[in-house]
Amino acid sequence: MAGERERLHNLFPDLGFDPEALRAKYAAERNKRIREDGEAQYIEAAAEFVHYADDDPYVEEESPRDAVNIDIEVAVIGAGFSGLMAGARLKERGVTDFRIIESGADFGGTWYWNRYPGAQCDIESYCYLPLLEETGYMPKEKYSYAPEIFAHTKRVGEYFGLYENTLFQTRVTEVKWVEEHSHWLVSTHRGDEIRARFVVQATGPANRPKLPGIPGIQDYKGHTFHTSRWDYDYTGGDHSGNLTNLADKKIAVIGTGATAIQAVPFLGAHAKELYVFQRTPSSVDLRGNTQTDEEWYASQEPGWQRARRENFAAVLLGQSFTEDLVADGWTDIARRIGISLMSRSQDSNLDMEEIMLRAEVADFQKMNEIRGRVDEDVPEDARAADALKPWYRQFCKRPTFNDEYLATFNRPNVELIDVSDAKGVERITEKGVVANGIEYEVDCIIYATGFEITTSAVRRVDFDTIGRNGESLYDHWGEGYRTLHGLYSHGFPNWFTIGINQNGLSPNMTAMFDDQAVHVSYIVNEILSRNLRTFEVTEDAEDSWVQEIVALAGTGATAFLEECTPGYYNREGTTGEGASMQNSPYAPGINAFNSLLRSWREKGDLEGLSLS
Hints:
Helix content: 25-40%
Strand content: 5-15%
CATH topology of the domain at 72-208 and 454-534: FAD/NAD(P)-binding domain
CATH class of the domain at 72-208 and 454-534: Alpha Beta
């Protein structure tokens, strides 16, 4: 320890803060938030809570139609961006005999459901909105709001002619492999029987609203809803605000992640009283949104969007120090680390210890700025300002960006309730919320608790997938994901999943889904064009990929996340335990993963797949 202190002093003689003290503070704040129940603290789907996940406030009723009984080549389950990309890339390959099955009444997935006031993507629109070159669309701003994103999903659906291929307002109830016919039987709540040679499970990581298992949650007699099912009939207004119905209402918001950061300013502006219950503060950086420069946009050369996406991923992983095309809050800390390493490497050879120290110090400096911004934006309430400061490293939780959230706590009608010492809200009563021994009576409780992104698949997906010999996919994955490339599993012929486990992970999820869809459509087309019946991952190939994922996880983000405050990034503090290592992404990053898949396709022998 003395040697490290000396090295820190030599490398950074004028830091102005004590790194060891910050490490201790981070650890203490993390430890007081760790819960023994981990992800079990959230309620699984149950009849009494079904309205939080299954009700659709955006349509009056389910459109009637006759049950479908058809034979097709491909069934795609889900019509968010992952399902849209699968449909688009299949069409590009000339595969047209498919159906997309979607529980919502239109395309969009997360962006169909997320219509809360202020909803906005935190990834630059030129990277996030897929197929911009193909559809000829120019985003209005650097960071798109939900209505524009939702409109773009519909634009993609129209451009690729996917509407006629899609069954909306339809929930899959079971997917079962029929051995004697070598096809999948997809059953739905409408009585559909869809027989498909291939199934692409594109349900996405953000499809199931997350609800905290707070004692008494079912006892509350007032109004309540989840932010992914925003009730504008109750609040009034729309995405842009004007929540005028709340003028005489006391509102409780539970959760302070990316959703609350965007919605709370609108609630604070209109509610009679607003109580925001916070267990862990978010890192809130400047948004600084700007209109798109039409001249700049028109000057982009073909292939610019892929190049921009790959540059964004490379900068985030410290793989590109010289060019940052996106240049925003996401890439800021990576740029700082990269510049520091470049300047240092000109006159010395860096060892891994120095690289890690420089990365940590750059992180401390960034987070000190984030905490300093809290003091600037919340000058009137020192208690609230202190509670709003995040004490963890930048990427322990998904960083947020907003220019109005912090200042909302200067309003006399807004109160921040810090529940970190109690590890969350104590209970809910018929009249309101109990926290720190105090009951807050409210007219409405809004759950801004996000989606079940990293919980087990059996929790996040409503239906079971039954493969060869009657094996459930969830049993096959009982001790952790088992796949090749994160896309297909042994015992499940002609089946794909598009997701975030055991493949290349990026905060820019649409890019990730698009590249997976490219690969999926390639394999489907190869099986069809070669007049084959089935493909299936071999057991050896699956075992080898799982072993590689686990081995790489120990050298990647897993070690970093083990020291983080609990959240969905580290599965509420359980990363590094059991299945968590196995469920990790491909540690070298999305660009390396896509290069691996590209090389696999170029070989052309479908290595690791058994063909018949």
